[in-house]
Amino acid sequence: MNEQKSYIAHFDLDSFFVSVELLLKPELKGKPVIVGGTASRGVVSTCSYEARKFGVHSAMPMATAMKLCPQAIVLKGTYQQYGFYSKMVTDIIAAKVPLFQKASIDEFYCDLTGMDKFFNVSKYTQGLREYIIKETGLPISCGLSSAKFISKMATNEAKPNGFLEIPHGKEKDFLWPLGIEKINGIGKQTEPRLRAIGLHTIKDIAHTPVEILEKN
């Protein structure tokens, strides 16, 4: 008997807070927008892709962000609206998917295992993504694969506002060429330590004995 294949979809609303703000203030589209503290205090909650081109990113001190992108438009955030749109997306997914996990206000995992008996899972996932965009007006990226962590990485590669499927049996083809910085959880301290011992891709890590990794 053939083993049942797993299908896990990961959905992530792109620059969620900024995307909601652009729905409320469409005149800001195409401009560098930062949602966070004041121009001199606090940290960046999220920012538009126009701001990211200047090196701005989430969790960056606002003072640093404004030095990199002094022309940025800073918004304190409309958090009640963020909750409203997050619930809207949650309700859509809950109505379309038998089993899902809401990982954060803008991130969802959907277990579609077994649905391949009734639907083309890839088309169903893409259709769900398109339906969310149509109903909410928000951009959302999605990854589909056999495992949660692979789907999340696929989503990251699909951004902004895209879809990427990693077929069963093609996991290594997708993962191994990626840089180590693509691995969820590897931060600014771990990355240089790994690169210092010659590990630059996921394939490098896969071929490295556990004892060496534990020592470093």
Model description:
With about 220 residues, this protein is α/β, with parallel strands linked by helices. It folds into three domains: about 10-15 and about 85-170, Reverse transcriptase/Diguanylate cyclase domain (Alpha-Beta Plaits); about 15-75, MutS, DNA mismatch repair protein, domain I, CATH 3.40.1170.60; about 175-215, no CATH class. It contains ten helices and eight strands. It has a five-stranded mixed sheet with strand order 5-6-1-7-8. A three-stranded mixed sheet has the order 3-2-4. Helix 6 (about 150-160) links the parallel strand 7 (about 140-145) and strand 8 (about 165). The longest helix is centred in the middle third of the chain and has 18 residues, at about 80-95. The model has no long low-confidence stretch (mean pLDDT about 95).
Strand order of the largest sheet: 5-6-1-7-8
CATH superfamily of the largest domain: Reverse transcriptase/Diguanylate cyclase domain
And the CATH topology of the largest domain? Alpha-Beta Plaits
Largest sheet, in brief, is: 5 strands, mixed
Family: Belongs to the DNA polymerase type-Y family.
Domain UmuC: 8-187
Pfam families: IMS, IMS_HHH
Protein name: DNA polymerase IV
